[in-house]
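Appendix C: a fully annotated inverse folding record. The material below is reproduced so that readers can follow the format used throughout the book. The structure is listed first as tokens, followed by the designed sequence.
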């Protein structure tokens, strides 16, 4: 018993603590999606705490923002007999709906491949770490296609050099979230690196949810789809009647 107590004290010793630690915060921890929502910006700010002189090597910071994961299917189209049809498909268990990486410098320089594989920081690692169900001969090409599509849609971003250092130990990163956000929790990870190795990490969460009319319509569509469909038809009919009436008045 005495040996166990000594072991606990030894592991808890300050001398074994990380030589540098991240102390970070967010400008907001909740985002409301309303009828006029056109995106928002999250400020990630913080400082590097150390009790000893700075170690040798340049200090770097990486910030990742990951949206809720959703299952999806990536299909390949082939031209057969003059018609484009879906052929092979890859089913992805869960892919981030949004993924952004902000860094103080080139990602391949400030983070080693081994650390990237361990923490799944780069967009490529984040996607390839998920489960795949495929009968295709080359599933990696489907994942690469998904990456191209998500970057083209601005759902994936690599913002190298966008994290700024202030007075050596203070840093800030501004990450813009698009208007087409998926409702749920957005995970924010902050990494401190030296010489390509991760020294310390810190996690934060931002909640995104619909509010007001957007939330009412979303709940109505999911909880009472029949009523939602009838209401949509009624509104469409009312809009058509109003337009025809307005044209009739204008012709007089």
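Designed amino acids, in order:
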């Amino acid at each position: 018993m005495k040996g166990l107590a000594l072991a606990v004290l030894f592991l808890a010793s300050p001398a074994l603590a990380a030589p540098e630690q991240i102390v970070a915060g967010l400008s907001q921890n909740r985002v409301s999606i309303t009828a006029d929502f056109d995106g928002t910006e999250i400020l990630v700010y913080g400082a590097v705490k150390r009790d000893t002189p700075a170690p040798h090597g340049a200090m770097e910071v990486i910030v990742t923002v990951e949206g809720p994961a959703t299952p999806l299917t990536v299909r390949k189209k082939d031209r057969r007999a003059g018609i484009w049809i879906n052929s092979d498909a890859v089913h992805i268990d869960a892919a981030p709906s949004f993924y952004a990486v902000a860094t103080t410098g080139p990602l391949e320089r400030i983070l080693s491949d081994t650390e990237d594989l361990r923490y799944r920081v780069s967009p490529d690692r984040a996607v390839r770490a998920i489960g795949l169900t495929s009968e295709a001969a080359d599933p990696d090409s489907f994942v690469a296609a998904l990456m191209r599509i998500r970057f083209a849609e601005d759902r994936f971003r690599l913002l190298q050099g966008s994290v700024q250092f202030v007075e050596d130990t203070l840093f800030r990163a501004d990450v813009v979230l698009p208007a087409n956000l998926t409702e749920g929790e957005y995970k924010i990870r902050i990494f401190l690196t030296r010489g390509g190795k991760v020294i310390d990490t810190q996690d934060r969460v931002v909640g995104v949810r619909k509010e007001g009319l957007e939330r009412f319509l979303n709940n109505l569509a999911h909880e009472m789809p029949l009523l939602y469909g009838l209401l949509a038809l009624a509104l469409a009919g009312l809009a058509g009647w109003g337009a025809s009436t307005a044209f009739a008045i204008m012709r007089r």
